[in-house]
Amino acid sequence: MTKSYKDWLSLDIENIEPLEMSSQQKDKLKQRVFKQTVKKRVPKWVRHLSAAAIIGIGTVTTVTTAFPTLASQIPFMKNIASYFNNKDTMFENFDSYATEIGQVQTSNGISMMIENAVFDGTSLTISFALESDTDLGSHPFIQGNFIDIKGSEAMGGGSRLEKISDNKYVGLANVTPYFDKEAPEEVEVSWTPQAFYVNTDKIVKGDWAFHFKVSKLAGELQLINETVTNYDVTARFTSLEKNEMSTIIHYEYEMDPELLKKWPEVTVQFDELQDNAGNKYTVHGNGARSLDNGISYKSSATIQAIHSSAKSITFVPVVYFSLGSGKGMEIKEMDPVTLPIK
Amino acid sequence: MMRCSAKNFISRLQNKKEDALDYVIEHYSSFVNAIAYKILSDINKDAIEECVNDVFLAIWQNAKQFEGQPEDFKKWIGMLTKYKAIDIFRRLEKQQAREKGDEELSQKPDVKETEREFLKKEQRNDLLFAISCLESVDRDIFMMKFFLQLTNTEIAEALHLSKAAVENRLYRGKKKLATSIKLREVFI
Fold this sequence. Notes:
The structure holds 2 protein chains of 2 kinds. By secondary structure, chain A is an alpha+beta fold.
């Protein structure tokens, strides 16, 4: 190093010659400014939550008297996904890539709101919230028709719903639709819960109905062919689906039918993986589907978008041999698998 | 729809209009980039990106604090970049020195350094902003004194002033600043 910082104190910046940034650099700069702004706002908002809640109640009361129908149309929550610990998972940057839905429906003292949604080509993630006049306990269940996607043959998925203050709940739902063809560019979603269930004594029925469309995130598919066989189970990794929010690992597994006599349910999964640069990813499993009574399955797992510098990812698939519904299980690790990233 | 222009971009930026950020990046990024490049290119290429990023983030978040005409905006953003870049330069320079080795053993703990570590990045950005709102000469003195934490002698050398003149200006500047509650918290 030739210069000390002191030499820069007298730098004349007024006559400096401009140095253009490329349009790519500018786009990246803008994205980073936005992304960091969103992240920083969250804790501040949480800090002011109680104050905001009080203001919220005041405002809603006034509005209700004047325009009873409009009151239910005002979204009452923001940045729902930030309530969950999504570090290193596919949901960490959910809000940055989500489509704003902003629908609210009120029935029987419960307002349900859908904030954002993302369809990454494999699974659909929805952030939602409830505001309830009555206490629904710490983890209410939702009854009624779960999320449906038009044109899908089958669906798998689940949701989390957690209490955050006296009358507010936040939720994150993720479902994987199966289509007989390729996934459509846009999915038509409907969700019509019919009750919120606390326990056998308490159930609040009502009518909530949401219909909206979500476009698929742009992405690309990288075909791969990596196979690992252990304990008469073969897992084959077939493709990587990459978009800005997530990377999806598509795989299949099949087993010797004899094995099913002892273990009727065999599943291959992995929970964590690492890239060659040492970054760790937490896996979100999308479930599996079998069309031949459990001899072979198609499955996928989603992680946060792989770092652009990564050249490969490595993980250890785990086989779950199960007797079915909690009757007994054995867990065995397969050989580690490394997939190249292009 | 209203378009962002040289006349209205500041108020649009203060109201967090996205097109104003586009405008500011389009018109000032080559200037900011040039300053960051000049100061940081010898030391670390990633640091240039960090600096440019930090400056625009700070502007986007604190635009409300800017008072003045569009002509002043360029001076203001330039000064922010300059001091931000010097700050990064100094941090990396120290880091490199540490990585070089042995000298560290003989170093005594530096009180200022410890203090600095307590000031988190966000607070430092606030400080940078608070100072940037002062009048020009005082602004440089205050940047060096409170943001870069130089001694009065070092400031005097850098600005070719006498030490007494620096102390005098600091004294008067502080008096002026004490009228602002936000700044009083920072300096007193």
